[in-house]
Design goal:
Elements (H helix, E strand, L loop, with lengths): L1 H26 L5 H26 L8 H29 L4 H20 L1
Helix pairs in contact: 1-2, 1-4, 2-3, 3-4
C-alpha cells in the first residue's frame, strides 16, 4: 500500500514539476535568465528523482540501482520543498497573492521523500 502511495506521489510531483518547468521556460518568462534556468533545473531534478523512484520500485531494479541515490534525492526534495514553501509565503506576504497549489506540490514532495526513506 505504501509503495503505491509512493509511486502516486512520484508521478504527481514529476508531472507537476514538468508543468512548472515548461511554464517557466515558455509561457512565463518574467525574471532574470538565471532565475528561469534555476526554476527549470529544479523542475528537471524533481522529474529525474520521480523517474528514478518509479524505476526503482516498479521495474524491480533494486539490485541494479543504488538506494543511496534515492536517499540523496529524498533529501533534495525536502530541501527544495522547504525553500519553495518559504518563497511562496514570502511572495504571499509581499504581493498578497497566495498560491496554494505550490504548497500542495511541496507537501507531495515531502510525502514522496518521507515514503522513500520509509520504504528503503
Amino acid at each position: 500500500m505504501l509503495k503505491k502511495l509512493l509511486l502516486l506521489f512520484a508521478a504527481f510531483t514529476s508531472l507537476s514539476a514538468a508543468a512548472v518547468g515548461l511554464h517557466s521556460l515558455f509561457i512565463d518568462a518574467e525574471g532574470s535568465l538565471a532565475w528561469t534556468i534555476g526554476k527549470a533545473a529544479s523542475a528537471a531534478t524533481v522529474v529525474g528523482i520521480g523517474i528514478a523512484t518509479w524505476q526503482y520500485w516498479r521495474a524491480n531494479a533494486s539490485r541494479h540501482f543504488n538506494a543511496k541515490l534515492l536517499r540523496l534525492g529524498a533529501i533534495w526534495l525536502i530541501a527544495l520543498a522547504a525553500a519553495s514553501a518559504a518563497w511562496t509565503f514570502h511572495l504571499a506576504r509581499v504581493t498578497g497573492d497566495f498560491e496554494a497549489w505550490v504548497i500542495l506540490i511541496n507537501v507531495a514532495m515531502i510525502g514522496q521523500a518521507a515514503l522513500t526513506f520509509w520504504q528503503l
